[in-house]
């Protein structure tokens, strides 16, 4: 597939952007069932924090390892209907999770959901790129806000449907998977038609940044370090924030889910704002502000009362989430001939860091306390200072290649 520099005057294909965002919402809603159900699983199966972290690690590794492989393969062999196939794995995982009678089968179920995620994201990110018509950060943020909204809705739906009734009621979420298949079918048809048109047209020139391989690789490395900082911290929230608020402030399971929702919905809003600002002011500055700018608030979080915890967690979510669309598009601009591989690498690395973070923090919480890990993780956003060394892509010259 060909790409051009951000000079296309056409408007984005809004119908496809909305559709892929809705599909992302439904996909990530089903994924987010896993951490949202942790309090119920912890109580029912008497799990340690380390075991809770292992559930996340198994899911995230399955979601991360295959993504660069899927992306690299679909760069050369686009598969418009692959997302539909991936959703079948997710449906199988959700069904098994509802019936799982023991810890071992819970692990198997989340691996199936992770495989579904690894198939979904690379091609879906490519669809968002194709539909952007030049507004890349905006398109990526619209795509991403769908996933973040789905993640935010999961704790509320779990609190409403599953927590009062039991694990078997997870089966209700299969309705969302069926709806996702319908939306993905519509997207696949558009994608397939685009491929047919591209196959009949003359081959376009791809514009790549005129940077040395060392500078490109250094920039990719810096971006991955920033992903580590961001997602290691986010893992501390998505996997353990319910337990933190229950332990520190005496909240019950449903109340704790609401505070998690505050963070997750602010992540959704921050993602959209980050995409808009990335196109307008430059992706490097949004990346720098997003990761480093959250530091004052993460450092204050462990020391405040419940009311301020709710306020700070919203501010942290807004700021720290604004980076990902800019990070991903920045990476795509560095390697425009490998869109699927880049998307798979960064989504996969993000998921992998989330899984490793959950496992490490779970072991740490068992050895110390759930509150202690928030004192340690509060320093992670300070790593964002290394964004200073990224080249400013708005000033980089481009060259044409076949």
UniProtKB/TrEMBL annotation:
InterPro entries: MFS, MFS_dom, MFS_trans_sf. Pfam families: MFS_1 (PF07690). Gene3D superfamilies: MFS general substrate transporter like domains. One of its GO terms (cellular component) is plasma membrane. The chain crosses the membrane at residues 12-37, 49-69, 81-99, 105-121, 142-163, 169-191, 212-234, 254-278, 285-304, 310-332, 344-365, 371-390. Residues 16-396 form the Major facilitator superfamily (MFS) profile domain. PANTHER family: FOSMIDOMYCIN RESISTANCE PROTEIN (PTHR43129). This is MFS transporter. It comes from Paenimyroides baculatum.
